Amino acid sequence: MTTDHDPIPLFREHGTGAVSDSLDLVGHNGGLPGLARQSGVGVIVGPAYTLRYEPVAPGEPAPAGEFIDDVPAGSVVVIANAGRTHCTVWGDILSEVANRRGVVGTVIDGCCRDLGEIRALDYPVWSLGSYMKSGKNRVRLVAVAEPIDVCGTTVHPGDLVCADDAGVVIVPDRLVKETAANVAKVVTMEAGVRADIARGVPLREARRRHGYNLAPLAQGGPSMVKS
User: Fold this and answer.
1) Hey, CA dihedral for 47, 40, 165, 150, is it positive or negative?
2) According to a count of CB atoms within 10 Å of the terminal CB, is the N or C end of the chain lower?
3) Nearest to 80 by CA among 148, 166, 172, 165
4) pLDDT above 50 for 225
């Protein structure tokens, strides 16, 4: 297990399951329900670079959002498009520039397009799905590097994003240190359970021995603790 104090390699090593369980230990959800990986492989972790779009009236001009040249390397672009599926806010050109700049992935409360080309670039994207219609003249970029709402969770600039095949979870900056400490506890506990069942111990007994069900109750939806 990674022992470096930097939480990014630790979260990358153990993925969203361990990070989510660790957030449950501090009473915070952080999950972004409904978002699924569209492209890329493995686990990505990085600070959120936040964007918010809003709709425009029919016939009102609204150019494509200009932001990608300002995104720092190592960041994850997180886009609040209010779950809109009738137009996209991310495509292959943005993915190509993001790759060149060292951006590690994109998370969208909405749709992407050009999915075949994005997959060919091996650029990681999570979204509600894909759809070909451009966001130009349908939505406009109205906020950059501000708190946003994504799938019912508040995401602040700099919060850590952890995403893999299971989905996306947000670790608020104020909880990163505590969450990282809890990842070690979760991983140690699960390793003990696995070792016991490998020796033939019944799962219920292995769980009891290692305190699997002694954590605080993991409550409902993504907003159980407000950021």
Assistant:
1) positive
2) N
3) 148
4) no
Residue whose entry in the numeric block shows the structure tokens 């699924």: 36
Nearest alpha carbon to residue 64 among 119, 139, 2 = 139
Structural domains for the chain:
9-28+172-213 (no CATH), 29-171 (3.50.30.40)
Q: Which residues contact 176 (CB under 8 A, 6 or more apart)?
A: 7, 160
Helix 7-24 / helix 176-198 crossing angle, nearest 10 deg: 80
Name which of 26-30, 112-116, 190-194, 210-214 the model is least confident about.
Answer: 210-214
Gyration radius of the chain over CA positions: 19
Look up the pTM and report it.
0.89
Q: What is the pLDDT of residue 100?
A: 97
Tokens 């806010």 -> residue: 89
Tell me how far apart the alpha carbons of residues 106 and 103 are, in angstroms, rounded to a whole number. 8
Q: What's the whole-number mean pLDDT along residues 106-134?
A: 98
Mean pLDDT confidence for 49-60: 96
